[in-house]
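Q: Can someone sanity-check these two? First one:
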Amino acid sequence: MTIIIYFSRKDENFVNGQIKTLVKGNTKILAEKIGEKLQLSVVEICPKVPYPFDYYEAMAIVEKEKVTKDKPIFHELAIDWNRVETIFLGFPNWFGSLPQIVVHFLETVDLSAKTIYPFCTHEGSAFGCSLIELKKICPNANVKVGLPVRGSRVEKADNAIANWLTQYSITEEI
């Protein structure tokens, strides 16, 4: 079984050098586009304590989480991991790395022998160090080539998604 798991944050976000209010998070939009293209279930990692609406307040918390290696609590995901073989894992690039809520999620699940296709949204730094971190957290998983998409361009990412899926023969592997 193949699934899409992602974490996303709506509300105020940094987009094209400005703070804008998003009704739907960029990573969620990207996850839904990939899910639609592949006709896969999409599952969201939801924090039990939501991040603040205000961008600067949220980023202060995110930065603290990164420095102190906090483990934000998330709602349990109803997934039978014994049936899962392939995961599309989506997240925003926060401060050049994986959000701590995604790190915590990855630490709670044994993804050994699973295939992971990472995708992220960003505003200029692509994956940053996220892929290195992902491989360290999941050393026995098969981490494949990922798809970074600028959050400000996520609405127009259909061609990038199609090219990623085709170029790396992803649809043939799942």
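And here is the second, same format, sequence then tokens:
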Amino acid sequence: MQLKTFARKLIPFAALTPMAVVVLVAYIGTVVWSFRVSLTSSRSLPTDVYVGFAQYSKLFDNERWMLSIENLALYAVLFILASMIIGFLLAVFIDQKVKAEGVLRTVFLYPYAMSFVATGLVWQWLLTPGIGIENAVRQMGFPDFAFDWIIDQDKVMYTIVLATVWQAAGLVMAMMLAGLRGIDEEIWKAARLDGIPTWRVYVSIVIPMMAPTMATVFLLLSTAAIKLFDSVVAMTQGGPGTASEVPAKFIMDHLFGRANIALASAAAIMMLVPVLTLLAPYVYAKSRRRAV
């Protein structure tokens, strides 16, 4: 009997073993290997010639890398704010028990189901001067209308924000809607009886109660921003010039195009730092809630 009980307790651990092996080898193992390579002078192939943190010094002396960090910071702030605000407003709209709610949810969420590459190519066509949006507006009777942000070095990052927010806002809407549907209906009834304005209920009660959902959405959007690659490659190839360069593209270019795996590994390790910085407080907060 004791043997059967022990076997039953062992089954969940046995089922989780393959996933644990994948995590240890495919994730933690590759991170350790990348860090090791970043400490060498490796070019096309890994070597054992250690140079300490010289690659990290080269990395932060590289103007292209510093530009990619600046672009990523600008993109992350605008992308996260816009996605959360638009997603929340869409969720509030659908939460009003509107007609054809299922259809609207599908319409808003559908862009997220599309490939980032496909989305980027469509937006590239829409934003290219002479065709797409510019051409459509000119045909409406505005021959002097110009919309050339995608070829403007100072505005190209805003076009990438526009395209990716369009794609991500639907996912945010779905998560926010789930959070809104978790709010007790009695709160709304009490607010109506007290004559509290709807906007005040959202600001003072609903949004604070949705803090866990907001934190999850923020974490997902932050990691998506850090990984930004597909949309940039599809829309601008990092151009014009290097105006829309981002860290992920810098890494891929040096890993495959410039055969400098040590510098690419150093850049990859540096991009891991903000991800861990975001995950650490989230994991800590979850562990504290479980302990309580």
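A (reply): Looked at the second one. The chain has a mean pLDDT of 88. The longest helix spans residues 2-38.
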